[in-house]
Each structure stands twice: as C-alpha cells, then as structure tokens.
Amino acid sequence: MRIRTALAILSAAAISSFAAAQSSLPPALHVGDDAPKLPIIGVVKGNHTPDSLTGKTTVVEFWATWCGPCIASMPHLSDLADHYKGKVDFYSVNTWDYNGKTPGEKEEVESHKTRVNDWVTKNTAKMRYNIVLDDQKDTISTSWMFAAGRYGIPCAFIINDEGKIAWVGHPMQMEKPLEEISAHTWDIKAFMATANPEIDKAREDRQVQLNISAAVKANDKATLDSIINESKTKENTISMVISMSSRSNPTLALDYVKQYFGKEGETGTPQWAQTFMMLAMSVKEDADKAALAKFSETNANAAKPATAALIYTYHARVLNSTGDKAAAMVWIDKAKAAVDTFEPSNQKDAIKTFIDSTAKSFKS
Q1: Residue 132 φ/ψ, nearest 5 degrees
Q2: HSE on the CB side for 142, CA within 13 Å?
Q3: What pLDDT, on the 0 to 100 scale, is given for residue 363?
C-alpha cells in the first residue's frame, strides 16, 4: 500500500466515525466555486461568522477536541492569525465532535457546547482565532469538506475576497498560499488545474467507500470481493474494506488481513499500520489479538526510516489495545528514536506531539 505524504496520514489518523456514517455524496465543491454558507449553532470564542464571505480573505478550518493532529496544528494556525490580524479572518469550526456515551449516540447540543467551551478555555492560549460550532448533523463539514473530497481533519479552506474557494488542504501547508491569496498574487487557475481533478478522484473513491459500507453492513463478502477485484487501486480498496469492517465485523476484517497482508502491495506502510490500529480496538478473542499483533509487528519491522516514527506509534497502539502495555512503551521509545529520520522534516514537531499524546493515553 502506498503513501502519498506522511502529512496525509496524520490527517487520516483523525478520520471520524461520523464520516463513515455518511450515506450519500453532497454536491461537489471545487476550487474556484463560491464558498458555501456557514450555518454555525454557536460561538465558543471570538466573532460570529459573517453572512457573506466576500470583501476579505477568510480561512475556515475544521477540528475536533479528540483530534491529535488538529491540536498539533493549533499553534501554527494561531501564529498565522496573529500575523494577518485585521487582514484575514480565521474561523475554526468544531465538527465530528458530538461524542455520545455509547457508539452511535449523539451528545446533546447544550452538553456539547459546555464541553467544547471548557476544552477551549483550557487551551485558549494556543487558539488565538474565532472558534465556532457545527451542528449535530455536521452540516458545515459535510457541505465543505465532504463536498470537496476531504475526509480527515484538520482541514482548512482559504476563501479569497471575491468569496471563492482559492485553496484547500492541511493547515500546516497553508502559509505560502495564504500569503499569495491575501496579496492577490495567487494563481487560482493553476491551482484549480491540479486540485479539482484530485477532488473528483477523492469523490469517486468516496463512492466506492459507500458501496463497501453497504456491503459490510449486509455481510456480503461476494460483493466485497467483486469491489476489490474490479478496483483500479486494489491495495487501497483492500485497506478500505478492512478499515470499514473493523468495527462492525472484526472477524471479516481480520480474514481480509490474513488473505492479503504480505501478498498484495507493500508491507511496512503507514496504511497497514493504521488499519491494524483500527482493527485492534475491535477484536475480542485472544487468538485474534495475538494474530493481529504479529501482523502489525511484521509491518513495523519493515518500516522505512521516513515513516518509521509514525508506524511504530501505530504499532504501540495495537499492542496497548491488545493488552501488552509494556511492549507498547518499548515501541513508543523506538518511535521517539526514529523522529530524526521522519519526513517531511517540517512535520517532526507534529509527530513528536502525536507520540507524546499516545504515550500519555496509555497511562490514563
């Protein structure tokens, strides 16, 4: 399984279970299109969103309290907000965060507002921008992110002063585009030429995910096998099948791991590491846990230096989930030692934060 960038995996690590609940694709949102509305249900900090996103460059960013990569991006986002104060408006939309006490349950709105407000109050120094709330249905992230083929957070959009989507991507990659968009030197047509085909491809992939989701729900292995065999990107489709069945049908997911790991595509990849991590949270039988830990360790031992720190951290999570906390901390130490070779190099601070937060979670 291939990796585009380590940064993409840091976003993928934050993919919400609420994203998996999406039942149909919203209308497409491309670079160059008018920015959608921002129907927030409350302001946690700063100003209310404007009725019209015109007349001024605006950043709209999406985050959640549970999202480690989002938290790691906050200081950088705050520095940009400070730098462009009075010139660019920043609105950070809390979404995918209505966490209920049981799977599938939604938190009550007022309880959600209180919890997020308390969280922001404790972290206000590193969130120096406007913070607003999406609704229980995640209406804003659906009409912005899902429409633009974005299914992981953090995610940021830059809207130019004409109210057009000028850029979309990870907030840690936003510095140069924001500088040029605010200075009216950004070549939006050139960006459209590369970004919009990527959006269309992501939406096509999402449709495949929806088809997989329906087949997993029906426990229809014949359809899943057909989807895999007909796929142009077989490795990625296998990963989708395993990931999307890992919670509701971990036995089916583990069967696909046994069928394809080491036989289809590369090993030693963040995609496999993330897949094992997700599955480890669901397997129940001791024999299945042991088998999964072995697969994960084989993958970790094959990791390349550029992504080893991330893969080792995911493997540590697998070990912790399957009950071996001592071994999990050994791999956390290996992850820390591998940070120096992590790529891209400008994401070393983010991966360090991810490792530290993971280690902390093992002790709680």
Answers
A1: -130, 170
A2: 18
A3: 84
**Hey, which bits of 116-236 come out as E strands?**
130-133, 155-159, 165-169
Q: Are 252 and 216 in contact (CB under 8 A)?
A: yes
pTM score: 0.67
Q: In 3D, which of 80, 36, 69 has the Cα closest to residue 154?
A: 69
Peptide bond into 344 cis (omega under 30): yes
Strand partners, 94: 63, 133
- Measured from the Cβ of residue 347, the count of other Cβ atoms closer than 10 Å reads 23
Q: Between vectors from CA 273 to CA 289 and to CA 249, what angle results, nearest 5°?
A: 50
Cα angle value 329/335/340 (rounded, 5°)? 150
Distance of alpha carbon 109 from its chain centroid, rounded? 23
d(CA 19, CA 138): 9
Q: What angle do CA 325, 327, 330 make, to 5 degrees?
A: 115
- State how far the alpha carbon of 41 is from the alpha carbons of 116, 201, 249, 260, in Å: 13, 32, 35, 45
Give the pLDDT confidence of 192-230 residue by residue, as tens digits: 999 999 999 999 888 888 899 899 989 999 999 999 999
Check residue 265 and give left, alpha or beta (phi > 0: left; psi -120 to 50: alpha).
left
* The residue to which tokens 């899943």 are assigned: 224
The residues, ordered by sequence, that sit 6+ positions from 69 with a Cβ below 8 Å of its Cβ are 10, 11, 13, 14, 153, 154, 350, 354
Nearest-angstrom CA–CA distance, 64 and 293: 29
Instruction: Report in angstroms the alpha-carbon separations of 341 from 13, 87, 296, 320.
Output: 20, 37, 21, 25
Report helix, strand or coil for 134.
Answer: coil
Q: Please state, in angstroms and rounded to a whole number, the distance separating the CA atoms of residues 352 and 71.
A: 12
